[in-house]
Amino acid sequence: MIRHLELKAYGKINLGLDVVRRREDGYHEVRMIMQTVRVYDAIELNRTEEEGIRLSTNLYYLPDNENNLGYRAAKLLMDEFGIRDGVEIKMKKFIPVAAGMAGGSSDAAAILFGVNKMFGLGLSKQELMERGVRLGADVPYCIMRGTALSEGIGEILTPLPPMPQCRVLIAKPAVSVSTKHVYESLNLPSLGAEAHPDIDAMRAAIEKKDLSGVVSQLGNVLETVTIPENPVIQTLKDKMMEMGADGSLMSGSGPTVFGLFTNQTAAQAAYEELRYGSSQDLAKQVYLTSFYNRKGHADGEQF
Ligand code: ATP
């Protein structure tokens, strides 16, 4: 019997994010190129004899009840399978919160994976993804991970070949952004063609393993809303470019900014500048990381 599991819930960035249209029901249809990065929340699961779910996190402002997506993930499977034992979830957050990196969705994905394994439920990855979408549109992707095209409201996924590696600098400024507000403020009819990234061209570049092609296609239509409201995002993008990034973009609805660097020395210097240097006030959390790829990992790989 499995009594203890340690899981890594990786965050994501969007190499491309386009909004195609607003549906009658208010949801937005998107086309996004998703990429997992090696910044993760550390999640510990312990099986307990006492019934129920107990969750704790290292951040005082995060919910430890049903409002936490990780809690809801455990509950979904435990209710469905009538599990009588309990589970204790310890969550250590490193992925910036409410930042466009799908932290909550990734926690939910890892916990679905972990509860399935711990209690021997026998669900396939596909079956976990079908349940995950009830928790949030990005959850199925966080189960799949790697490089993928995401369409519909985020639930239609096409796995893509792994991205060529480079250094990925991630910086989260000290501003808060509401995803709901950003989507509601997006004025699609007023935008020119240049505001929309060419997702098909980016997909073609990824399939050709052409990193500079990907860099030339980086684009996020939500920048048209988030950047004018939070100029620090543009400042961060400019700083990364000035320090030798091949390209730089806002992830999701923001405010996290990432820079892609083929020059490792430049990436390290830019990291140090944002973390400890004269630009340290621009960002609250800074990580120098790399892409996480599915390549070489068998289906059902340990999270
Ligand atoms: P996305 O990239 O999908 O837009 P995000 O980065 O904007 O995600 P999250 O960090 O996933 O957003 O969480 C946003 C809100 O959800 C937070 O304000 C928080 O209160 C709530 N939340 C619930 N569960 C979690 C969790 N496990 N981790 C982080 N936030 C959570």
Automatic annotation (TrEMBL):
<feature type="active site">
    <location>
        <position position="12"/>
    </location>
</feature>
<keyword id="KW-0808">Transferase</keyword>
<dbReference type="InterPro" id="IPR004424">
    <property type="entry name" value="IspE"/>
</dbReference>
<dbReference type="GO" id="GO:0005524">
    <property type="term" value="F:ATP binding"/>
</dbReference>
<comment type="similarity">
    <text>Belongs to the GHMP kinase family. IspE subfamily.</text>
</comment>
<feature type="active site">
    <location>
        <position position="138"/>
    </location>
</feature>
<comment type="function">
    <text>Catalyzes the phosphorylation of the position 2 hydroxy group of 4-diphosphocytidyl-2C-methyl-D-erythritol.</text>
</comment>
<feature type="domain" description="GHMP kinase N-terminal">
    <location>
        <begin position="68"/>
        <end position="146"/>
    </location>
</feature>
<protein>
    <recommendedName>
        <fullName>4-diphosphocytidyl-2-C-methyl-D-erythritol kinase</fullName>
        <ecNumber>2.7.1.148</ecNumber>
    </recommendedName>
</protein>
<dbReference type="Pfam" id="PF08544">
    <property type="entry name" value="GHMP_kinases_C"/>
</dbReference>
<keyword id="KW-0547">Nucleotide-binding</keyword>
<dbReference type="InterPro" id="IPR014721">
    <property type="entry name" value="Ribsml_uS5_D2-typ_fold_subgr"/>
</dbReference>
<keyword id="KW-0414">Isoprene biosynthesis</keyword>
<keyword id="KW-0418">Kinase</keyword>
<dbReference type="GO" id="GO:0016114">
    <property type="term" value="P:terpenoid biosynthetic process"/>
</dbReference>
<dbReference type="InterPro" id="IPR036554">
    <property type="entry name" value="GHMP_kinase_C_sf"/>
</dbReference>
<dbReference type="InterPro" id="IPR020568">
    <property type="entry name" value="Ribosomal_Su5_D2-typ_SF"/>
</dbReference>
<feature type="domain" description="GHMP kinase C-terminal">
    <location>
        <begin position="202"/>
        <end position="275"/>
    </location>
</feature>
<keyword id="KW-0067">ATP-binding</keyword>
<dbReference type="GO" id="GO:0019288">
    <property type="term" value="P:isopentenyl diphosphate biosynthetic process, methylerythritol 4-phosphate pathway"/>
</dbReference>
<dbReference type="InterPro" id="IPR006204">
    <property type="entry name" value="GHMP_kinase_N_dom"/>
</dbReference>
<comment type="pathway">
    <text>Isoprenoid biosynthesis; isopentenyl diphosphate biosynthesis via DXP pathway; isopentenyl diphosphate from 1-deoxy-D-xylulose 5-phosphate: step 3/6.</text>
</comment>
<dbReference type="Pfam" id="PF00288">
    <property type="entry name" value="GHMP_kinases_N"/>
</dbReference>
<dbReference type="InterPro" id="IPR013750">
    <property type="entry name" value="GHMP_kinase_C_dom"/>
</dbReference>
<dbReference type="GO" id="GO:0050515">
    <property type="term" value="F:4-(cytidine 5'-diphospho)-2-C-methyl-D-erythritol kinase activity"/>
</dbReference>
<feature type="binding site">
    <location>
        <begin position="96"/>
        <end position="106"/>
    </location>
    <ligand>
        <name>ATP</name>
    </ligand>
</feature>
